[in-house]
Amino acid sequence: MTIPVFRLPIGVECSSNKGKVHVSGSRGVVIFNSVSNLHRKGNMVIFLPYLTSYESSIFTQAIFGVVLGYTIELRLKGIGYRVREENQKLIFSLGYSRPVILDIPLAVSIKFDKRTFSLMSPDLGVLQNFATTIRRFRFPDSYKGGGVLYANEIIVCKEGKKT
């Protein structure tokens, strides 16, 4: 059986303390829980006891996130759908009687274009959770194709009533 050894890229720091693993790099910091202790020699990292495959994939995602970062681009499709940012909150106008207000997580930064906005973060789990929370408020309609869509998502619309 081979020992799983991780090689850290240049500029990435990794440490563990009280069941939490901290991975930091140029894009930010990712923290996740692990029962394994981290042992480091140079740029080589070994976890004892060995990481499960789930924890290993989280560690690999954390390394990619702090080096390259993750981006999810969302698009608003519909009449009067708008989004703006005020005081670390996103305010959506999605056709409801009141605006939808969401707190922006600390690890997520947002860049706005005309009809699209990009969510960027080093932590993939937080980013996907936040994007799903936004989509939940106006899931894409299967008849008109409107709602909050991923940038490259294609909605196949159903046929309406026949009269």
Automatic annotation (TrEMBL):
It comes from the Eukaryota. GO terms for cellular component: ribonucleoprotein complex; ribosome. InterPro entries: Ribosomal_uL6-like (IPR000702), Ribosomal_uL6-like_a/b-dom_sf (IPR036789), Ribosomal_uL6_a/b-dom (IPR020040), Ribosomal_uL6_bac-type (IPR019906). The keyword Ribonucleoprotein applies. Gene3D superfamilies: Ribosomal protein L6, alpha-beta domain (3.90.930.12). GO terms for biological process: translation. Keywords: Mitochondrion, Ribonucleoprotein, Ribosomal protein. Residues 78-150 form the Large ribosomal subunit protein uL6 alpha-beta domain. The keyword Membrane does not apply. GO terms for molecular function: rRNA binding; structural constituent of ribosome. Pfam families: Ribosomal_L6. PANTHER family: 60S/50S RIBOSOMAL PROTEIN L6/L9, LARGE RIBOSOMAL SUBUNIT PROTEIN UL6M. Belongs to the universal ribosomal protein uL6 family. This is Ribosomal protein L6. It comes from Pseudochorda nagaii.
